[in-house]
Design brief:
Number of helices: 14
Number of domains: 2
CATH topology of the largest domain: Rossmann fold
Order of helices and strands: EHEHEHHEHEHEHEHEHHEHEEHHH
Radius of gyration: 23 Å
Largest sheet: 7 strands, mixed
Strand order of the largest sheet: 3-2-1-4-5-10-11
Strand content: 5-15%
Distance between the termini: 59 Å
CATH superfamily of the largest domain: Phosphofructokinase domain
Shape: elongated
Length: 405
């Protein structure tokens, strides 16, 4: 029977998935392998009525530039008792290619261990995908999809900032990011936003709704002192991962609740929650300053990949074949800025529970520090006297008094 490889996608979409599928599939077809695509990720892989695609060159070539994912995706995390060998044996599978983020990588690691315990010789290579850029690749190596999402987010953010200047308003943007603030930080930095808020800024202090509001107001008042009545703040939704439910509920937004009594954030716009928190604080001072929410969410995930990601995804596709022929398995694939392909073994980046550890924004990085110090607007100790025109306690709005870096 012809040897085959299987490709599946887990988690949510990111620009470049189709480019990876196309690049992996083409090089393996060229080397006489059968290329099978599995719809619905791990749910499809271990389902009795799974839907598969037998890829040929024409189909793979037609999806190369497209956003979204030709292979339907799923966030399903199979339990150990769902694993089976049937599909792998029946199709003479030699390689499982998984495309996804940290959850998909963690499950791939579990499957690899399962196959090894069953004495089944099937390799697994994981292609790291997330617009959050939070997989633990080497410094300077982005996850594919990040640059395209950043580009699309920056396009929207620039338009919003132009609106702020034109209408003399403030906007509050929210960007995806889970625990990490890469996307929010780089969109904000690209557009010269006067305030950027990410979880990593709170190095050793608790993230609260009050601190988020004070940071944005600090920027608003600083700009008033500079003679500017407009601006925009971007906040990573990852801050919610570190806030108590009571802090989130303080926004006054009407939430639905899950079975454990936690507010279901996926049912509301994160920017709306942030905006409500900020507006409550502004009104407590009797200030008449309007802010408007803008969500940078699902609109970034299925945009067509930019040239950077088209090239990166091509290298990743070629890298899958290279590492497979070298006998590598149970690893993620990384491509450094020089285009060099290297494996990153999952066992080296997992915690004691087998979960892949997230990569956070390095706040000590020189580029990050220069943006924080030179391109953002916020109150300093020197501004306290002038800020008293707007606030009766301006010392509480001094940037360095709010966060701990």
């Amino acid at each position: 029977m012809q040897e085959s490889i299987v490709i599946l996608c887990g988690g949510g979409p990111a620009p470049g998935i189709n480019t990876v599928i196309s690049s992996v599939g083409k090089i393996f077809l060229k080397n006489n392998y059968r290329v099978i695509g599995i719809h619905e990720g791990y749910k499809g892989l271990f389902s009795e009525d799974r839907k598969i695609e037998n890829f040929d060159f024409r189909l793979l070539d037609s999806i190369f530039y497209k956003g979204g994912s030709y292979l339907k995706m799923s966030r399903h995390k199979p339990k150990q008792d769902e694993f089976s060998l049937e599909f792998f044996k029946d199709n003479n599978v030699k390689l499982l290619v998984t495309i996804g983020g940290d959850d998909t990588a963690s499950t791939a690691n579990r499957i690899t261990k399962y196959l090894q315990n069953q004495n089944i010789d099937i390799s697994n290579i994981h292609v790291p995908k997330t617009i959050d850029n939070d997989l633990p690749l080497p410094e300077g190596c982005p996850t594919f999809g990040f640059h395209s999402a950043k580009d699309e987010g920056s396009r929207i953010a620039k338009t919003v900032y132009e609106d702020a200047k034109t209408s003399q308003n403030w906007f509050v943007l929210s960007a995806m990011g889970r625990e990490a603030g890469h996307l929010a930080f780089e969109i904000g930095a690209s557009c010269h936003f006067p305030m950027i808020i990410i979880p990593e800024m709170f190095k050793s202090s608790k993230i609260t709704a009050d601190k988020i509001a004070r940071l944005v107001i600090s920027s608003i008042i600083k700009r008033r002192i500079l003679g500017l009545n407009y601006g925009a703040a971007i906040i990573s939704e990852g801050v919610f991962h570190f806030m108590d439910d009571s802090e989130i509920e303080s926004s006054g937004v009407n939430f639905t609740y899950d079975a454990h009594g936690h507010p279901e954030l996926f049912n509301v716009s994160k920017s709306h929650v942030f905006n409500m928190i900020i507006q409550r604080k502004i009104k407590s001072y009797g200030l008449k300053i309007g802010t408007r929410p803008v969500e940078l969410g699902f609109g970034l995930r299925c945009c067509p990949p930019v040239a950077y990601d088209l090239n990166l995804c091509t290298l990743l596709g070629n890298g899958v074949y290279k590492l497979y022929k070298e006998g590598k398995s149970a690893c993620m694939l990384s491509v450094n800025p020089m285009g060099e392909i290297a494996p990153l073994f999952l066992a080296d980046v997992e915690d004691e529970n087998g979960k892949v550890m997230p990569r956070l924004v390095n706040m000590e990085n020189q580029a990050v520090q220069t943006i924080m110090k030179n391109n953002m607007d916020y109150l300093t100790i020197e501004d306290i006297e002038q800020a008293k025109e707007y606030l009766n306690d301006p010392e509480n709005y001094v940037f360095d008094n709010i966060i701990d870096l």
